[in-house]
Automatic annotation (TrEMBL):
It comes from the Bacteria. The lineage of its organism: Bacteria, Bacillati, Actinomycetota, Actinomycetes, Kitasatosporales. Residues 91-220 form the HTH marR-type domain. This is MarR family winged helix-turn-helix transcriptional regulator. Pfam families: HTH_27. Coiled coil: none annotated. Gene3D superfamilies: Winged helix-like DNA-binding domain superfamily/Winged helix DNA-binding domain.
Amino acid sequence: MEQPVYSGTAHGPDGARFAVVGISNMPTDWAQVLKGLTGADLTLPTALLATGVAPTGAVVGAAAPEAGADRPAAAGPPSPSMTPPSVLGLNAYLMYALGKAARRRLQDRLTARGLRLWHLTVLALLSDLGPQMKTVLAARLDMNASDLVRIVNDLVKTGYVECDRDPEDRRRIMVRLTPEGGSALAELGADIASADDEVLAPLDAEERLLLSSLLRRVHTHLEGGTRTAARP
């Protein structure tokens, strides 16, 4: 259905003239209201002029210059991605936002290799600790056992890990890193460093070391608190 469009002019408290354009969401409602307002001597609230946000169905345009005046450059609406200043004082929000950005950049690089972050985590854990049972892997990563099985199966298909029975206890299935998996993990190190460089670009080498040290201290604190809370 074609939407009626009405336009007109208004002025702010300082006398600056503004264009008003209204597009209705339905055949009636705002179109009829704006039809009555256009051309009227309408004064726009100061807050409305500052934000450029109009009621539903209306859009406030840039100031219309007076006759003979030079046309000013359009300032444009505020960036929708701007973070509210008050939120920047919340460390929890900053860690969330920065972590999200870092995760997105790393995931892009992993996706190009057909992997996900959990695949990288399992490979790294096997490289650090050696062969592990699936149940132990799931517990260390705080993952649901069935989710861990899917991750391991993916890595088996790529040839990065293999599953064998423990020679000391044939009932246990051990997951181990293959030489191909070790090589893939080494190559991923460059991707991880590249993602870090993008996120930490404003920091110099000394500042990055300090940030890493502080983050590890907080992580150790939270990890210790989780273990304490888990005790009966």
